């Protein structure tokens, strides 16, 4: 069996991280400019406002999770798992489940009251996992794009 590990990203992960993050954005129909990746990488490296973890199988980066915390009016701070992506050839091997567990562990250690995320209703493959590891509380997400 292959060794699966999850940890903070390092400088050596930068190129593969960008490839994975580009794949994530492609899935949602977005193409991002190079400076977007540079800004995100700088934020993740600082690990103050935004955080990133990487999943590796036998030492190769195959999955990423990006998350942040924010205040809540009804509880202690909460952790928002903003981006979760596994390389297509590594899917079905526990990578996303391990990343969710690692974010949950991080949030617990940082006194968050919960971890939450959103996905498209049509993302049935991901939702099969999400339905196993989390509660769908029936909320519908609305968004206003600003100029």
UniProtKB/TrEMBL annotation:
UniProt keyword Acyltransferase, yes or no = yes
According to the UniProt entry, the coiled-coil residues are none
What keywords is this UniProt entry annotated with?
Acyltransferase, Transferase
What SUPFAM superfamilies would the database entry show? Answer: Acyl-CoA N-acyltransferases (Nat)
Indicate whether Acyltransferase appears among the record's keywords. yes
* Pfam families noted in UniProt: Acetyltransf_1
Residue span, N-acetyltransferase domain: 4-147
A single Gene Ontology MF term assigned here is: acyltransferase activity, transferring groups other than amino-acyl groups
Which PROSITE patterns does this entry report, sorted A to Z? GNAT
Q: What is this protein called?
A: GCN5-related N-acetyltransferase
